[in-house]
Amino acid sequence: MDIKEAAALARKASITLSSADSDLKNHALSMIYDSLINRKDEIFRANNDDIERSLKEGLPDPLIKRLKFDEHKLEDILSGIKSLINLEDPVGKLLAQTELDNGLDLYKVSCPIGVIGIIFESRPDALIQISTLCLKSGNAGLLKGGREAIATNRILFDIIKSASENAGIANGWIHLLETRSDVTEMLKLDDYIDLIIPRGSNEFVKYIMDNSNIPVMGHADGICHCYIDSSADINMAVNIVTDSKTQYVSVCNATETLLVNKDIARDVLPKLKKALDQKHVELVGCDKTREIIDIGTASEQDWKTEYLDYKLSIKVVSDLMEAIEHINTYGSGHTDCIITSDKSNAELFMNLVDSANVFWNCSTRFSDGFRYGFGAEVGISTNKLHARGPVGLDGLQIYKYKLIGHGDVVADYANNIKTFKHIKVK
Amino acid sequence: MDIKEAAALARKASITLSSADSDLKNHALSMIYDSLINRKDEIFRANNDDIERSLKEGLPDPLIKRLKFDEHKLEDILSGIKSLINLEDPVGKLLAQTELDNGLDLYKVSCPIGVIGIIFESRPDALIQISTLCLKSGNAGLLKGGREAIATNRILFDIIKSASENAGIANGWIHLLETRSDVTEMLKLDDYIDLIIPRGSNEFVKYIMDNSNIPVMGHADGICHCYIDSSADINMAVNIVTDSKTQYVSVCNATETLLVNKDIARDVLPKLKKALDQKHVELVGCDKTREIIDIGTASEQDWKTEYLDYKLSIKVVSDLMEAIEHINTYGSGHTDCIITSDKSNAELFMNLVDSANVFWNCSTRFSDGFRYGFGAEVGISTNKLHARGPVGLDGLQIYKYKLIGHGDVVADYANNIKTFKHIKVK
Prior knowledge:
The structure is a homodimer. Chain A is of the alpha/beta class. Helices cover 43% and strands 21% of the residues of chain A. At the A-B interface, helix 1, helix 10, helix 15, strand 13 and strand 16 of A face helix 1, helix 10, helix 15, strand 13 and strand 16 of B.
């Protein structure tokens, strides 16, 4: 089956899946759960093959770690499926209701988007999370995982497809893509695919955005900021910045630039340098920063750079508004935090910073679907449309309007025989 | 000021406007209301100039009618502004709230999209509706109206800009574009503009979609269907189809194709032909239709054609599922109606037809923001993302996540010192 046939089949299946009831979907999730346990030895063997090959190919340690699928990862995945079963069905929710006139009722009802193409990194657990999110949210999916995980992905895909289709989910609701040329082909299929979610490097996401007419949800850059306001608690500021920068440096919600109010810079910067030196973080700063601590020079380019590494750029700003303007100019609309004890400054910051996640007195590393309690996420979006921030089940829904009448015609209203009532019921 | 400068200014203004409070925005709308009354003679004079020039240029009658802005249109517009003032502010709504842990609270709050570029037909009232919708929803706007309305648009734009900025709305929140090259320029400004809403012909909307990286919301085709099910009330079916086809033929929610169940075709088609003959509707049909009524032949191309005229294609189908499949294959996802007395067939139709508006026993012409009670609409969307169907104030909103903590860091959760509670408050 080529990609176009797969996409056409997925579209057909998506129509049936869109109205599958909650019990059926949850039953299919349980069957997947059981099948993962029953076939775990197959999964582990395939994963060993992937790891051995990748070690031979010299894949770096952190990537080997992500590639590994062992008993511990399986447990996490199983508990994820359990919580997904317990989550409310996002499909068919009554979002609004208006009585347009006697016996003419308008309902706005949530429904799945349709067919989603998802391209993700070499993490086998991602395949399960993404496909079970698609299933629960009623969407058909075309999945492309990383090359390194190919053997593991094949087994996992077979488990998910067989278990769900045996449970009664429409045949062909899910497909596995294996090559880059499959992806190139998929990007052209805007007649069948409603949304592409690419996860991966900036360059990769930008490539997808530039090479498809299908809407893309995701984020290219993650240039996150912490701003230490003049009234910040100094210890809290040092802790939050350290966590935001160093708790996990290679992820999109790690902080890349620190802004410091000039009135607190002399107090906080030396303490911060001490804490970050212990974590081996390279610091670069503006001239005013360098008057206070002895670090390298930050250039204009630094404000635009997502290091994804043990490096932080620092700028001293004269006030809150300069911090907000810097973030709205150089940031990527991902996650930005103010550290302050002044409530009105915090509110102004959270209102005026134009980012998906705006934080007060907590680490930027919190912006994540699991931490937000979504059960799982398909990705984090910096789009200004549809879904923003971590995207879980709700972000995979759209809605339709259902209008139920009794022979009603517009001519009666155009000719003033009848007038609308527009009574908002919900 | 060139378009890039205008867009940059609009982006700057959009940040302030995004947090403007409801009273300020409503005050600005009142000032616009008053100014429209005070300067109505200027408006009417400019509109006369537009009409005289357009008459000389031989603009067709229906377009002259749309171009006209008189006392009657002004009254409609004024009452529209009044209802907009009374509508709830869509900005700052708490959409969801979760306590992640003690003293770590997540809020999902609605906020404006940002900067919207809207291109619309030569209808001066559209300029006022669109700009007041942008204002109330907290979005900055770049507006491009039809060339024929240029003099009227200039006055109306001046009124809206002066009145709102005098009332305290951020300077530069709204701009008027006047030429096609302005539009070409605007389509490139994805750094400043978040969304393009094009209204106009299919070709025009497709051109915009193909020539910009900015997300586009709207609809190209409006191929709407009525399906007469076997249990339909025959008189009701004739009335609904007649209204759906003829109440206003040149609009996107007029019906273009009629599907008829084979079991009712012999009863309903002759009566329908009689009714549509009176309205001078040209009918074309499939072979089975033509065995019953004497009309022209419909080709495959007819099922894909939006006539926007007094013409209807008719197909006899063997059952409900064939009707649904025909609509999902040839339709444009705009508005489709089933006429039936069978509730479960109606529900199946409304669930499985993948369109923005799915109707039961009422005319397709009802799919419209005013009729839905939205106060006004910026357009109708057949997108599967963000907003679908008629788009009013709510469709011009996105959301952001605000997370408020007290020094919380992710390391505490990663190291199992703390665990998330995830208590859903709203």
